[in-house]
Design goal:
The protein contains 6 helices and 11 strands. With 207 residues, the chain is α/β, with parallel strands linked by helices. It has an 8-stranded mixed sheet with strand order 3-4-2-1-9-10-5-8, sandwiched between helices. Strands 7-6-11 form a 3-stranded antiparallel sheet.
């Protein structure tokens, strides 16, 4: 079992036992590996993940929940919901924002469930109104810094479908400049211009 946390485009794996995917990263010279748990070790791997020379990080500890709690204490947790939306042709709806292809998502409002948040954000960012929530896909995590504070964003992704020929309206105030339905033949190009966490979401959906 593991948790994958992105520092920009670099993955940090918190795990109780390395999987084949994680072991592939461990063989690189620019990967950081820690298997002795302590508060200074948690601080150390966070510091290392922010270094340009580091490609990936691996922290092994059992139980994993203990490591997770120690890591979470270093950040302000922000929860969000997002959707991978398919139309009747099986195409996926992507948004273009700040030079990258992305999927619609946003922060959880007070009093909302994660499901409600995901549907609301998809509607606001794309203009879709007929949205059917099919079920959960996966959870992604990434870190970012803002105003001198360190945040960990936990995004809950859901599979969604929509029917009919609905008009699309990119949400300009969120700097979304383009919306595009993408079929299987166009996914490879999109995956080259998106975030690693979005690649994980698409893979989880089985394309």
């Amino acid at each position: 079992m593991y948790i994958k946390i992105y520092f920009n485009d670099k993955p940090l794996f918190l795990c109780d036992q390395p999987t084949a995917e994680i072991r592939a990263y461990a063989h690189h010279d620019d990967a950081v590996f820690i298997d002795e748990f302590s508060p200074p070790a948690v601080n150390s791997i966070i510091h290392e993940m922010r270094q340009a020379k580091v490609h990936a990080g691996i922290f092994v500890h059992t139980p994993l929940e203990t490591l997770k709690k120690a890591f979470w204490k270093k950040f302000i947790l922000i929860q969000a919901g997002g959707g991978l939306v398919r139309n009747e042709k099986g195409e996926i709806l992507f948004i273009f924002r700040r030079g990258k292809w992305d999927l619609p998502k946003g922060k959880l409002d007070e009093g909302e469930t994660l499901e409600q948040c995901a549907v609301r954000e998809v509607a606001e960012e794309t203009g879709l109104r007929d949205i059917h929530l099919d079920g959960p896909l996966l959870v992604t995590w990434h870190t970012y810094d803002e105003s001198g504070k360190h945040f960990l964003k936990e995004t809950h992704w859901f599979s969604m479908t929509t029917r009919g020929d609905q008009s699309l309206t990119p949400q300009a105030e969120e700097q979304i400049t383009e919306l595009k339905w993408v079929g299987a033949s166009g996914l490879d190009d999109i995956m080259k211009e998106t975030f690693p966490s979005i690649v994980d979401v698409v893979k989880a959906a089985g394309k």
